[in-house]
Every structure is written in C-alpha cells, then in structure tokens.
Amino acid sequence: MTRPPPLKNDCFALPPGVHWTPVDEALALLQSRMSGVTETEVLPVADALDRILAEPAVAERSHPPHANCAVDGYALTGAQYKEGVHRVPLCEGRSAAGQPFDGRVPDSHALRVLTGANLPAGTDTVILQEDVQLEDGHIAFHGPLKIGANARKAGEDVQAGETLFPAGHRLTPADLGLLSATGVGRVTFHKPLRVAVISTGDELTEAGAAASDDQIYDANRPMLLAAIKKLGHEPIDMGRMPDQRDVLKDGLTRAAQEADVILTSGGASAGDEDHMSALLNETGTMALWRIAIKPGRPLALGVWEGTPVFGLPGNPVAAMVCTLILARPVMRLMAGQSWDIPQGLMLPAAFSKSKKAGRREYLRARVRQGQVEVFPSEGSGRISGLSWAEGLVELSDEAQDITPGTPVRYISYADFGL
Ligand SMILES: Nc1nc2c(c(=O)[nH]1)N[C@H]1C(S)=C(S)[C@@H](COP(=O)(O)OP(=O)(O)OC[C@H]3O[C@@H](n4cnc5c(N)ncnc54)[C@H](O)[C@@H]3O)O[C@H]1N2
Ligand code: MOO
C-alpha cells in the first residue's frame, strides 16, 4: 500500500526544481511587452479631470500675462524712495483688475492700484495701502522701499510656450487650474482604458440575494471595479460566470470585444474547476504564471482574441494584491501613462515575521506611531484585513527575518492611486 504524502503546513512551499519568476523579472517582461492601446480625443479642459494627456500640454499664454499688483495700494518707482519720510503726489485715475490705467505714471508720482490690476506703465513697485497715509492728493510713507515689492512680473509663474505637462500625465484638479490660467482650453487625451471584470465560480452569488450555505457573495467584482475606477480607467462589469468552459469562453470573447484588458478572478489555479487557466493555456498564449509572490501565486496571464487577460486568484486578498502589483502598472502603460511602481516609504516594522528568501510577500498594513503594523492573519480569504489596512507592506525577495524595528517598505493605498 502506498502511503499518502505528508501534509505540508506551508502550502506556498516552492516545489523543488521549478523556476519561480521573481516579481521584478515579471514586471520587466510586462513592461517590455505592453504599450498604449487607447484612441485619442480632444476635450475641453474643464471636462478632463483624471484624463491622461496624449500630447504634451503647452502654455498658450504667460502667467501672469502682464505685470500686475499683488495688493491694494499705490504703484510707483521703488528706487527713488530711500530712507526717510516721503510725500508723493498721486496722479489722476487708478488701475483695477480688468480696468487698466491707460497712461504712464509720471516720474515721482504714484497711482492708486487694486489687487490683480495691471502694473501701470512707469512703475515697478506697489506700496501697501496700510503703510501709507493718504493726504489731499498725496501719499506719505516711510522709505526705503524694496524695488519690485508687491508687484508680480509678467510670466514669473509660467512662460508662454513652456511645456506644462508631458504626454501621459493624468490631470489633477490643480492641473485644470494651471491649464486654464495659461489659456489652454482644449487638449488631446487618451480615451479611458476599458477594463472588463469577470468573477468566476459556481459558488458565487450577488450580495443582497438569498444565499445557501454553499454559496458566497461575490466580493471581488465590486472591489475590482471600484479599484479600476479609482486608478482612472473605465470599468466594465461583465458579471459572474459559472465554472463552465463554454460559458467562460463566450464571456471572454464578449469581454475581448468590449474592453482593452480583462481581469478575471477565480479559477486561476490548476484544480479540476480552474477553467480560466485551462482556457488561457489552450490559446497557447499563457505565460508567466509562476510568479514568486505571496499572495497571488496562481496568476494566469494570457491573451484572448487579442486582448490581454489577467486571470487573478479567487481569494480576495490575492486578487487585490495582484491587481495593485502586477495589473496596475500594465494598465497604466496601456492607458498611455508612464510605467510606475510606487516606492512607498521605509519605516520600522512593529511586527515579527519569518519568510522564505526568494519570494516577495505583501501583507496588509497600516502605520501607527511611525511604525508599520500588519493584519494579524495572512489568510488570503480574510477580506476584512483589506479594509483594516491602509496599504501594503512589501517584504523583499531576500528578506527572511523581520523583527520590530527592521526597516520595511510601506506602500499606502493612496500611493497606488486608490
Ligand atoms: N492544490 C493547490 N490548491 C490551491 C493552491 C495551490 O497552489 N495548490 N493555491 C491556493 C491559493 S494561494 C489560491 S489564491 C487559490 C486560487 O485559486 P483560484 O484562482 O483557482 O480561485 P478559486 O479556487 O476559484 O477561489 C479561491 C477562493 O476564493 C473565493 N472566491 C473566488 N471568487 C471570489 C469572489 N468573486 N468573491 C469572493 N470570494 C471569491 C473562492 O470561493 C475560494 O474560497 O487556490 C488555492 N488552492
Ligand atoms: O496566494 Mo493565494 O494567491 O494566497 O490566496
């Protein structure tokens, strides 16, 4: 009688003789294989929050376009007024924002000016109204004046023709302000990357529906759709699919028509019901599925009818980690952005952990009192830990023994763009 093999406590033990691709090697390969796929469109800047520039954005006008006044006060020629008390005659009129002074301020005169007004010709300095005494047709103040005080030079912020942002930049609210300030009304953007999300598994049902004991609610789909949106892409909900090869095949084909990239979860492993990896394998395009990463060891990467597919593991924590670490940079490239791996911060660990060298590990983490805490369980199904956490701690391939105080890399969800 043959004896059963001994049970292993560590289900992640690396099988002897198998080459596990290090995360960096997998990423380098993905970077070299993938490129932008989206079409472009011209949009008004006001509608372009979070959109990705397809061309560099160039200032059409300097900012400010004309020298102007930073305060309410009086404009004059600063160099004339040294130490001592000065009485300077005011000339007729004023310069206000949108209502400039037409003439030139004569030598040794001052002109009433308001904040944002064009600096009148013949002046270079503005004295604050609080610092002068207004007398009949004159102002009196103490010198010396600092030449150029309270006056903004034309183009001191931005020069016309300056490149504001390179192609691939994603616009923030501040960027909409800068583009508008420099006269840029319309820009060419990439159309958003369309990312289809499919959940697979006979056990899945929809939250809110009645569920039997052998069913679980689909958590990955809402989580991944929301993550894709936060990352700036267009999520396409392809729903849940049972573990039936023909249904999955149809689903992948529909997704390949509607989307630029497909994320599936479940069935990535090599069990009897792991149809996703089997289907991708059949296409002959499946590559890179033994990545030395935990969680997320069973990751199926393939191409279905021309569209890349990330066959993510079903366990929610693994699905999220693989999305952030492996799918995110690829989706960025496809969307027209730069390759980007967030570096996070090196901070002291508040925990102890032993790991195998040769595999990168990500733990759910957060920072308290300047130290990185980790979720007490590494169970990849413990979805509550993803919410408990505020980011991930990345334990390098080489790391083995982490003790309190060991510097570890903490990457917040915000660093990933979540
Ligand atoms: N013999 C082995 N078994 C397993 C291995 C292994 O190496 N050898 N790896 C384990 C690891 S690690 C993971 S992760 C899973 C990944 O497997 P699959 O991608 O095939 O995922 P499933 O088996 O379909 O599901 C795993 C787990 O996650 C739950 N799940 C799936 N989809 C969802 C969803 N949309 N929302 C919430 N939860 C979901 C599912 O019910 C399972 O509990 O394989 C291990 N097994
Ligand atoms: O690594 Mo699995 O991918 O832990 O749950």
UniProtKB/TrEMBL annotation:
EC number: 2.10.1.1
Catalytic activity annotation: adenylyl-molybdopterin + molybdate = Mo-molybdopterin + AMP + H(+)
Pathway assigned in UniProt: Cofactor biosynthesis; molybdopterin biosynthesis
Domain MoaB/Mog, first and last residues per copy: 196-333
Keyword Transferase: yes
Cofactors demanded by this protein: Mg(2+)
UniProt entry keywords in alphabetical sequence: Magnesium, Metal-binding, Molybdenum, Molybdenum cofactor biosynthesis, Transferase
PROSITE patterns: MOCF_BIOSYNTHESIS_2
Transmembrane stretches, start-end: none
Top-level taxon: Bacteria
Family designation: Belongs to the MoeA family.
Function of the molecule: Catalyzes the insertion of molybdate into adenylated molybdopterin with the concomitant release of AMP.
Name of the protein this chain belongs to: Molybdopterin molybdenumtransferase
Organism: Cognatishimia coralii
